[in-house]
């Protein structure tokens, strides 16, 4: 599958960081939006990603203009991404999404994360979303890319009921896509990507507080052993599991408050 990512990344280059994380998985050709031949080059790609930071509640105007230049996009697959200041995604993708769908494109999936913003009034308060995108955001971008590839290569992708966004009778319908073979991410404070985990058990062996248990998913298309964070609230954030996982399937999602809670909990046991 040939993949291209077209982007605008100015200001502090946060969008470029997200793209680089995705591209560890996608191995896409990268184009800045000012490449004047992009609209011609798009013909040779099976999947195209379009994204930028958010400016006045929508993607950068150059991304919007580029999407408007594309000819008929019937059957062409796209994904949309952005970096933003607001805590919630809101309707920032709507303008770009609608243009692509109106031209016949299929939006396979969308990704968004917060990024540092010290423009306008925010600069008087030291900026919003300091230190973002952070390591967790970049990990999420990689996971998004893996999920994206699974969607695009699944043989049932082009059946109508599985399209994320499509146009029916003149109306844009937002559906969902959830193939039964995808297990997704398990856990809240400790994340395990079950689609990547191969059940090797290294996390079980190195964890000092028995957070993980190897289990099978009976009756599910994926029935091999997987590491499940059954005792994730006991996690002491030592990161031994993360460092020893050969497939980078684990991410510790806890914050500093969780760290203090763990210290208090384990301190009381002694």
Please give a quick description of this structure.
With 270 residues, this protein is of the alpha/beta class.
Layout: helices, strands, pairs:
Layout: E1 3-7, H1 14-26, E2 29-32, H2 38-41, E3 47-55, E4 58-59, H3 61-69, E5 77-84, H4 94-102, E6 106-114, H5 135-153, E7 165-168, E8 171-174, E9 185-186, E10 190-193, H6 202-206, E11 213-215, E12 226-228, H7 240-244, E13 250-252, H8 256-269
Parallel strand pairs: 1-2, 1-3, 3-5, 5-6
Antiparallel strand pairs: 3-4, 7-8, 9-10, 10-13, 11-12
Helix pairs in contact: 1-5, 3-4
Notes on the protein architecture:
The protein is α/β, with parallel strands linked by helices and 270 residues long. It has 2 domains: 3-174, 3-Layer(aba) Sandwich (Rossmann fold), CATH 3.40.50; 185-269, Alpha-Beta Plaits, CATH 3.30.70.20. It contains 8 helices and 13 strands. It has helices at residues 14-26, 38-41, 61-69, 94-102, 135-153, 202-206, 240-244, 256-269; strands spanning 3-7, 29-32, 47-55, 58-59, 77-84, 106-114, 165-168, 171-174, 185-186, 190-193, 213-215, 226-228, 250-252. The strands form 4 sheets. Strands 1, 2, 3, 4, 5 and 6 form a 6-stranded mixed sheet that branches. A 3-stranded antiparallel sheet has the order 9-10-13, with helices on one face. Strands 7-8 form a two-stranded antiparallel sheet. β3 (47-55) and β4 form a beta hairpin. The longest helix has 19 residues, at 135-153. The termini are far apart.
